[in-house]
Amino acid sequence: MADNIPKTPKLDELEKGGWPSFVKEIKMAAKRSPMGGDLLGQLEQSYNEKIGHWKHGGIVGVMGYGGGVIGRYSDLPEKYPNISHFHTMRINQPAGWYYTTDALRKICDIWEKHGSGLTNMHGSTGDIILLGTRTEELEPTFDDLQKIDFDIGGSGSDLRTPSCCCGMSRCEWACYDTMALTYDLTMHYQDELHRPAFPYKFKFKMSGCPNDCVASIARADMSIIGTWRDQIQVDQDAVREYAERGLDIQNDVISNCPGKCMEWDGKELNIENEFCVRCMHCINVMPKALRPGKDRGATILIGSKAPIIEGAFLSSVFIPFMKITPPYDEIKDLVDRIWDVWGEEGKNRERVGEFIQRVGLGNFLDAIEMEPIAEMVAHPRENPYVFYEEYYEEDDGEEEEES
Amino acid sequence: MAKTVEEIADAMFNMVKDAMGQKKLKPMDLTKAMISLYGEEGVDKKMCKGAIKNLVDSGRLVYTYFGGSFLEIPHREGAAND
Ligand code: HEM
Ligand code: HEM
Ligand code: SF4
Ligand code: SF4
Asked: How many beta carbons lie within 10 A of that of residue A162, not counting itself?
């Protein structure tokens, strides 16, 4: 089918250079499926005209599910009949993105049989992305995937496929088992994942420590980031060894500590742990000498999102420290209360962070029956309009007496 | 008077049918409407969830996505190609 590949001088520019090229990959896929050729043709035309030629399909999906299929049609179906339908399927990835080569081959075989053969490993949600198929192929693809124990992920106004860093499976910094929590939440919230019932999307991302390798603080409505609440573990001999081998501890560690809570006298490293903000910097620079404390858990943050209704938000601290152990009842209880209030009162397309901004943190906390604490204030001097009832009542009483 | 999941499903289906072409409804719109129609004693959120599941699993309603997720009667959409 090589003659199906159109002339694409603009796209060919993107094959140059010493890095992977999606154009090269689509040309390879075009040898096996006619979709690839038409995809190149339409994209080259878009580059020439500076106009996209995709239409959104709002109805396509698999029976019973409301998420996981993203409908796309070409608006030039006569010219590019092979991509007249070009729907995407999101497939729920295993926690930590571990596969056997055998499982990957099976997924690829299914996709060459039913779709374009093009995949994206992985999408920003974390899912396996299968790019390009026809409406009538959706159910057969779903059936074949189920036979090898893969399920469709989230899309639309539902719980998006939870994702996490590799955590304890490969990383010594993990302060809780991210993969176990991800698996547990995925299974526990199957209904919310497949049947969109929220005002808009909701994402969990689990990072095992504040290095936050899945960028959970910027990309999740609920960011669950590992941390510790006791002291950083210090091996003073190993610190001295770093110094002897030429590490400039004063400049590269102490001066960069955002908590300004470290001292180095050339022999001993001292950390005032009350002022440590758990940024991981010192630990990352001297991994042999320092490690997170022993009393480990996670900080729960709320509200990050990319700009749509409001601008970009980062998540801000909600629960400074929570132990993360099975069966994770504390976290599920919190999630259920948040979903209850936002689910009922949130406007269409309003993320939970925007909802909190609109109604005010004080009212939101009231509704989910939580007490405000100082750590919830995102920036000093930002007024969260929280009124502490105990002070309030006293004042009210006095005023009444005066008048 | 407590309603059955089937009765709720029928009432929801009729709401979607009546609104078709004028307003797209979200699952929470239907749930809220059922609670205001039948009262807290008649229905709860869990029953409404069950009713929606019935409607979708039987194919009477489908989920659609137009900048947010809605429940609609299956139909051929404008954007679809043959
Ligand atoms: C009619 C008179 C005044 C009005 C309407 C007024 C209003 C304001 C407003 C709206 C702000 C900004 C607050 C914020 O952004 O959070 C401000 C800041 C400030 N005002 Fe005034 N002000 C008045 C008089 C004064 C006077 C007489 C002083 C000092 C003697 C003063 C000292 C300050 C200071 C120090 C700040 C800055 C606070 C900060 O750093 O955030 N103001 N004022
Ligand atoms: C009619 C007179 C005034 C008005 C309408 C006014 C209005 C305001 C407003 C709206 C704010 C911001 C509050 C907030 O962000 O929550 C503010 C803050 C402030 N005002 Fe005034 N103000 C007046 C007079 C004054 C005076 C006379 C002073 C000092 C002598 C003053 C000092 C300040 C300071 C220091 C702040 C900043 C507080 C902070 O940073 O949290 N203001 N004012
Ligand atoms: S976020 Fe922390 S625990 Fe997870 S992989 Fe990165 S460094 Fe390791
Ligand atoms: S983790 Fe960060 S804040 Fe804490 S001591 Fe190390 S560098 Fe300082």
From this structure: 31
